[in-house]
Write a structure and sequence with these properties.
alpha/beta, three-stranded antiparallel beta sheet, 10 helices, about 40% helix
């Protein structure tokens, strides 16, 4: 496994791979790897002989009051996990290798990035887009792999790739959950034992909405109200950032379940902001 710290090292390795005619899969990460990340690597390995993983805590996507300084950094364990999962190259740059002191370019995906997480994390998706675009330019992958837990992020990146005619395919892989249903996240380790238990209210509220929809409830307002009540009761330590019923493609809010929807939510605990989502298709529901 190649461990590269500079752009030049990555490009040298990629040139050799291209000469051999191999397809390249990329899994962008910020490290603190868990089973969710490893599932992306597995999906990439199934499609591409050469799998590259980036491990970079990207300062451009953190706001001034967010957790950049304390974001978990577990590089040695991450490298061991990448090696175990058959990764070919790991790119672990420093910030100076990714951003020139006078860097002046940004990428903004209008509308898709401006509500949900984008409303409470101003500039977050601009930071995501610039670093992902740079990684695409450095690694030149045929496919890049993202998790469905970050549904808005995957949608924003997919639109960026489409709009800028980037020559790669975005693959969105299923959410990987803990045994009790909590969506895996590097930030789960911030939770106290009590918060960890209460965090199950996120998936609990999504299951509740699904159950109500299957019973015939089609009004988004009613589903959101039931979810809010469930979280208020089951997770008193949590503070709801948003709950939204939205079109899967445009991410626009929808008042009724007249077609497939995605229900997404974010809940803040003292040291962690957790997100989750579920796709519901009324054509497969009763009522």
């Amino acid at each position: 496994m190649i461990i590269a710290k500079t752009v030049e090292e990555v490009r040298d390795a990629i040139r050799q791979v291209r000469r051999q005619g191999q397809r390249i899969g990329l899994v962008p990460t910020m490290g603190a790897l868990h089973a969710g990340h490893y599932s992306l690597m597995g999906a990439a390995k199934a499609d591409c002989p050469f799998v590259a993983v980036s491990i970079f805590v990207n300062p451009a996507q953190f706001g001034p009051n967010e957790d950049l300084a304390k974001y978990p950094r577990t590089l040695e364990a991450d490298l061991a996990g990448c090696r175990e999962h058959g990764v070919s190259l790991v790119f672990t740059p420093e910030s100076a290798a990714m951003y020139a002191p006078d860097a002046a370019t940004s990428i903004h995906v209008a509308r898709l990035s401006e509500h949900l997480c984008g409303a409470s994390r101003k500039g977050h998706f601009d930071g995501v887009c610039i670093v992902v675009a740079k990684l695409f330019n450095i690694v030149l992958p045929d496919k890049a792999y993202f998790g469905a837990k970050d549904y808005q992020q995957a949608s924003v990146i997919g639109r960026m790739v489409r709009d800028l005619d980037m020559p790669l395919e975005i693959v969105v892989c299923p959410i990987i959950r803990e045994a009790d249903g909590l969506a895996m996240s590097s930030r789960n380790r911030y939770l106290s034992p009590q918060e960890r238990q209460q965090a199950l209210a996120l998936i609990g509220s999504l299951h509740l909405a699904d159950k109500l929809a299957k019973a015939g409830q089609r009004e988004s307002k009613a589903l959101i109200g039931a979810m809010r009540q469930h979280i208020a009761t089951a997770a008193p330590l949590g503070q709801i950032d948003y709950i939204e019923v939205m079109d899967p493609d445009s991410l626009s809010p929808t008042d009724r379940l007249d077609g497939p929807v995605v229900i997404a939510l974010a809940v803040k605990f003292s040291s962690a902001r957790l997100i989750d989502n579920m796709r519901i298709d009324p054509t497969r529901l009763g009522g």
